[in-house]
Amino acid sequence: MRVFKFGGASVKSAGAIRNLANIVKRFSTENLVIVLSAMAKTTNALEEVLMHWMNADLTAMNTKLKEIKQFHLNEALDLVEGDSNHLLIAELQALFNQLETQFGQTPTKGYDFHYDQVVSFGELFSTRIVSHYLNFIGIANTLVDARRCLRSDTSYREGVIDETTSRLLCQREFDFSSANIFLTQGFIAGTEVGTTTTLGREGSDYTAAILANLLDAQDVTIWKDVAGVLSADPKIFSNAVKLSFVSYQEAIELAYCGAQIIHPKTIKPIQNKKIPLYVKSFMEPDAQGTIIAHSDTPVKLPPVLVLKRNQVLITLSPRDFSFVIEDCLSKIFALLYKHRIKVNMVHNSAINFTVCVDNDKLRLGDALEEMKHEFAVRYNSNLELLTIRHYTPEIIENFIGNRVVYLQQRTRSTARFVMDAS
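The structure corresponding to this sequence follows.
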């Protein structure tokens, strides 16, 4: 059994979905689990709708929601050759009715809870469209609701999967004695009480990996709009090259540093069972791509650059000028954990603790206010974090130059710089 994951770019339009179908057709005699993201930009659009709803701006909310609905209906009609009576159209309409029913109520719970109940519809839309289209062209498949097979806790926006329960549910839902191709949603899971959770932004990769682990897949393939894992984002750095092989350990380092090609939680489930991961281009399915797998010996790689934008550098100092020692550090990390702030880099001195974090405005504001109760707080925003793996002095000089660096760290293989935005 194999797991395929198709991201938003590979389902961004009717044309892209036809291309996806051509890839699936090549493997249509094999046992497949296909994990889908929302259609490109849909997650962002639903986040915008959610904010309008939370802010009681119903006019803006309805305008944006109408755009999303029309887009999905148009692409669906294209795929079923304009047949407005096709079951797909009725099912899409029913999904939008469910979503609109939510918006007819007043939001009474926290942002994270409502985020998961709303934004998860992007994957529900895309899987319904692709499943019907594959059946329409003769590729029989079964659609599985991920919320029925992946059980998570109630950590909304960052659901934690209960692997023991999920394994039993997956073995029930993905019954290869009755079908050989299954589709399901990436990014989403379900709780014991029937609510929806999401697994973190770009979490569809993680869905593919956890399903591969639970179902003992032979491999996972992530189909993307790039040739494989690159040494840098080609939209930012002009000298990016494809990496043919990346070890699990290196992939974890790159994901932790913020490499967009792989979700940070993706590697552990496949590493635990030594399941190889292929990253390939959906535009060039015959090209080699990148293999992420076990390696007993170090693999020599060129310098690899990862740039994270929209960073905030926070410095905390105890108000009584006491040393930043274990007790103080424990309080700081507990506070960061409480507000679910992603820590990208830390540094401490005798009386200062400095941390670089993502600028999650909804969470960071509350965290900063609580920090001020016990610490003097300084921070700089609109920064970038550049990580260079396998660096050389020349590479650092080329990419840092005269930019203002607020914090830097170097180890044997990694150099990291928090600096002003370019």
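The longest helix spans residues 58-79.
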